[in-house]
Design goal:
The complex is a heterodimer of chains A (about 500) and B (about 850).
Chain A lengths: L2 E4 L2 H22 L2 H20 L2 H5 L2 E8 L8 E5 L1 H24 L6 H20 L3 H19 L5 H32 L17 H19 L8 H7 L2 H27 L1 H7 L1 H21 L4 H22 L2 H32 L10 H4 L1 H15 L5 H15 L3 H4 L1 H25 L14 H19 L2 H15 L1
Parallel strand pairs in A: 1-2
Antiparallel strand pairs in A: 2-3
Helix pairs in contact in A: 1-2, 1-5, 2-4, 2-5, 4-5, 4-10, 4-14, 4-20, 4-21, 5-6, 5-10, 6-7, 6-10, 7-8, 7-9, 8-10, 9-10, 9-13, 10-11, 10-13, 10-14, 12-13, 12-19, 13-14, 13-17, 13-19, 14-16, 14-17, 14-20, 14-21, 16-19, 16-20, 17-20
Chain B lengths: L2 H12 L3 E3 L2 H20 L3 H20 L2 H5 L3 E5 L10 E4 L1 H24 L6 H20 L3 H19 L5 H32 L17 H17 L8 H7 L2 H26 L4 H5 L8 H30 L4 H25 L5 H32 L15 H15 L5 H20 L2 H29 L5 H6 L7 H19 L2 H12 L5 H12 L7 H24 L14 H129 L3 H7 L4 H42 L6 H12 L6 H29 L1
Parallel strand pairs in B: 1-2
Antiparallel strand pairs in B: 2-3
Helix pairs in contact in B: 1-22, 2-3, 2-6, 3-5, 3-6, 5-6, 5-11, 5-15, 5-20, 5-21, 6-7, 6-11, 7-8, 7-11, 8-9, 8-10, 9-11, 10-11, 10-14, 11-14, 11-15, 13-14, 13-18, 14-15, 14-17, 14-18, 15-16, 15-17, 15-20, 15-21, 16-18, 16-20, 17-18, 17-20, 18-23, 21-22, 26-28
The chains are: A mainly alpha (about 500), B mainly alpha (about 850).
Amino acid sequence: MEEIAISILPVIAVFLPLLSTPLVFFAREAISEDFRDYFAIGVSVIAFLAVMAMIPTLMGGKIIEYLLISKDITPVEVAFRVDHLSLIMAIFASFVWMVATIYSREYMDQEHAKDRYYAFMMLTLGATLGIVLTKNLFALYIFFEMMALSSYVLVIHEETNEALSAGKKYLFISIGFGLFLLLSILVTYMIAGTLDLTQIGILPHEGASKLAYGILFFTFIAGFGAKAGMFPVHVWLPDAHPVAPSPASALLSGVMIESGAYGIIRVIYNVFGPELVSEIGVHIILAILAGISIFLGSAVAISQKEIKRMLAYSSISQIGYPLLGAALLTPSGLEGAIFHLFNHAFMKGCLFLCAGAIIHQTGLRNIDDFGELGQKMPVTMLCFTIAALSMIGVPPLNGFVSKWILCLGALEAGNIVLMLFVAVLLLSSLMNAIYYMPVIIKAFFGPRSKKPVKKVDPRPSMLIPIIALALGCIIFGIFANLPLSIIELAVHALLG
Amino acid sequence: MSDISHEVAHGMVEAAHLHISSVPVWAIAVPLIGAILAYVIGRRSERARDVLAVAITILTFGLVASMCPVMLSGGKIAYTLHSPFTLYEPTFVVDPFAFLIALVTSFVWMLATIYALSYMTHEHARNRFYLFSLLSLAVDLGVLLAGDLFTMYIFFELLAIFSYVLVIHVEMPEAMAAGRKYLFIGITGGLCLLAAIFLLYHYSGTLEITSLAQALEGIGYLRYLICALMLIGFGAKAGMFPVHVWLPDAHPVAPTPASALLSGVMIKAGAYGIFRTVNMIFTPPAEVAEHGATVIEHAATWATATNIGYVVIWIGIITMFFAVILALMQENSKRMLAYHSISQMGYIIMGAGCAAYLGADGALGLAGGLYHIINHALFKSCLFLTVGAVYYRTNELNMYKLGGLWREMPFTALAMFVAVMGISGVPGFNGFVSKSLLHHAIVESYHHHGDPLLGFAEIIFVVTAGGTFASNIKMFIFTFLGKKPDNIKKIGKVEPAPLPMKIAMGALVASIILIGIMPNLLLSIVVPATGLHAFSLHGIEHLAEYMTHPLHFFTAEGVLVASTELMIGGIIFVTGIRFGWFHWEHKIPRWFGVDYWYGQLADKFLWLCKKPFTAFDAEVDKAYLAAANGFLGIVEPSTKLDEDINKAYVKGAKKFLKLAGPATKLDKDVDRAYVKGAKGFVDFAKGPATRFDKGVDKGYVKGAKGAVALARRPVARARRVHFTGTYDKLTTFGADPIPTIVVLVSNWFMQISMALVGIVAYPYAFVNYILDLISKKSGEPITSISEKTRQFRETYKPTMPHVESIGFALFIVAVMLTIYIIYIALEYFLHF
């Protein structure tokens, strides 16, 4: 039986950003613009520190819980529960958020409606942390919808026609598939009588027919997968991610789609349980969908010319890895899946912030114009290179390590269909090289760009976030056991 | 067989001691750290950086060479970096086999760096060159010294990335194209290798580089797939057919010191991997072969090794033969040398194949292959450096546009001549020794099972050696002998090579001649290297014999083979020149080369990605749009219906309004009638009715007064009759004080008790009622609030007051206050 520690830290991490939203919104009018920026940064730092403060307790083998409103008062309990999976998600989510918020100060310099931007950044941060830290599937749903709606405002920030139409797509797909999620949660409650994410598999084996469970599984997958950007519910992603301001893109691609993947992991391991899933055999279908995501995302990314759109397609491909890993139902597969979520946040966060720095400094978006950028913006492009090489899976960077573990997991599965995914993963690495390498080569060794580029690396307030994420790619590649020690405990808890 | 050689051989096999030392780690760390240091310093002072770069390579060479004593005694050096934070603990294992390649790698690197001091003055981005050159040195040594496949793979992949920057250094379009090919074949090969490592790890459970053949026996033909993947992975780096296509493009475009390194030593990392795969991972462990008798027990394992060996021999033969033919047809000296690298790599791969094919008797093949790795590193880098020296002075790489330079560049001419003799296997130069060993090996393979095809292979071997001689001597003759062509005359006096170049070339020339004259020098390490593999003592003894009697190399047979090769070479050269065979390259159709098909494959794959897959993605997007439109399609008719209904209403309303016209008139008429009527009524009311009313009123008043007067008497009478007690007194004598106080007190008592009920009893009852409801719902008994509160505390042990308990308290207070206020209000309005 797991030991439970009571701590208010998760409440701070979730409610501080949520409650700070109106304060951030009115901070400029009340005090000053600088104060608003620093206040938002401060809130994100405190949220990060609150998450980090939970590490010692969890490394001690305990689980943090906090009951906010008990079941005796309201029909659905509102409680927080931080297990190891939640913790690792919260760590990188809050870290990348903090970094992106710091980055925003310089990046959003010339933008309009900054009050709205910062306020919704905080609201979305609270909602995202709520998703991963909550104990109950129903509360998770509420936070999930809150994240979808509040991030809509970030997507349409530019308010161009393009952004608005992308936002519309995002909104309707979010709401539409959110209803799938609500339906499946209701059905789960009817069958299982509980929505707590505390045990492995709350659905009883005899609860319903295989077919019914299969349908339930895929309504869940549709709901969470739409947010994750999984094929075939990914269509909003390549439109919505590039139009958002770069720090928001970094968060959308680096953190928010991963909360969808987090939901899928919870569904497989906590709602259904690996035994039930393998009994009804739906994991193979999920693995195939993930495989198509991996392959299609990379293939389409190859033909993209605009850097952010290419990165968005790359996200579709990369989110397939953890979904595949989760669908393998093997310890290494799950470990690799969670580790890849962690790594992808760093890699894609860094790449989007680099792309943002390039756009902010030079206004270039088309990869063909990137000649000579390596000389003009050496630090930015070096960080871009590190993150891109990590994406390709060059050792000893972190992307390689998670790919390594995922491949071992695929072999562990022992099922010939699942073992073939080793080939898919390796082929996808090659395809990643096909679209990332030309960017690097063009920037460092390519012919001079036709458009004259004068500006240099951005100011430290933008550069340090980029460097922090790139360093993360190196550190968590070489010293992979730092996050893996938490992830192993999470895997242990989820697979029994 | 002499006793001494027996003892030596025996000693080598027995004395495989394991030494723990961090030297291999330092040999990798020094250039790694030095690279960054050199880059930082290079931004301030180029001179300081040049000195530092050379110093680092010398230090690295010294570190590698310092492992020599252990290696000479046939021992191993192992080191594990203990770190709790890395996924696997990186291990480093150095055996004589790896040591020898590492030694020559660091040696050639040192010389190439010295050479670069003067050569690179003509190039841009020198800082970048030294950075990536030193990084490549570090990771190249990493590949050789790594003790497990994971560590090895990390360095192997990094080598591809770092050396890419050396390949594209000049940044010309052809360099970029060659670099792209290099990079993508490198990455693809790396991924094949990775797949093989996954499978190896999965089925054997270890990442150690050791004999896994027995562990892999149970997995059937999959082991051949693993082997093939590993061969592709390592072969792509080594320039093995058919994954060699990048090499003839990439090696010539790099700056000369880098070409020398790429061709001389970096491809050896691939060859090293092939040897490890074929002769270690897929053959039985060394212990098996120590005593010849046990060999039979592992017949199945040996059979795998033999099969693999046979295929690898032929890969080697094809590689050496086709490459030498293409080499003959080159004009560009560097491109020609690149083809020779492929060809010579064929010899080395063939050696690995022979060693596996011959099983326990394969010591010769391994020794020949390893020896040729060393020799090729020396003469190929020397050839590149001499060609580079000529290019440095004349800016010309086409050998047909050069000539007569030997007077002005005598040292370079001599160096190239020695290297040409080396690569051609002329007795007295280093190539002869290893080629003799390899020739023995292929002949022995032929005799082993008497496969006639292998007899044919031997002929190809000899012809290839002839072709090698022909093309290299052609380069030497066209470059240095004959008359100066006009374009060279225009330059005027050609300066001799600068001193650093001479030092580098001189050191290589010296080592080529030294090994050629004293072949036993390197054998003292080559023999221990064979001792680590599964070879019978007999074969190793045979080798050790050479070691103690170096003159055995120069037997009549050996010299005869060498002179046959030279003769064939001479014939090829003369006839080739006579009939113009050396210009046939462009006559070969493009589809004949593997390169063409790779290009096609890559193009098709990219086309697939860009066209159908992208289109498919767009289709998915469209499908969503269609679904949305379909939904709107349902919406539209219903909207229309809604509108129709609305219209109907409006119509109805209008019709109704039309009807309303007459009605209004009627209404107005009625209205008027009413008004008229009303006026008449009012007139009536004001006049007679009011008068009547007043009259009635007066009548009532009169009547009422009469009634009151009538009533007074009997009521007073009734009072007196009925109420005689206290109450009678109370009502009759209202001023009496005592009863008034009693009434007031009882009134206050009522008020207070009601308040108490409101504050305490009612909430109590309310909460109990709620809890009762909950307990009925949840099925657990709840006795009282205090009991429930106690349960609350025990279950949750809050560290600070729970929000919900505060809320509960506030709620109760609020309820009580509300009830009290309502009570007070009721009191006020009802009682006072």
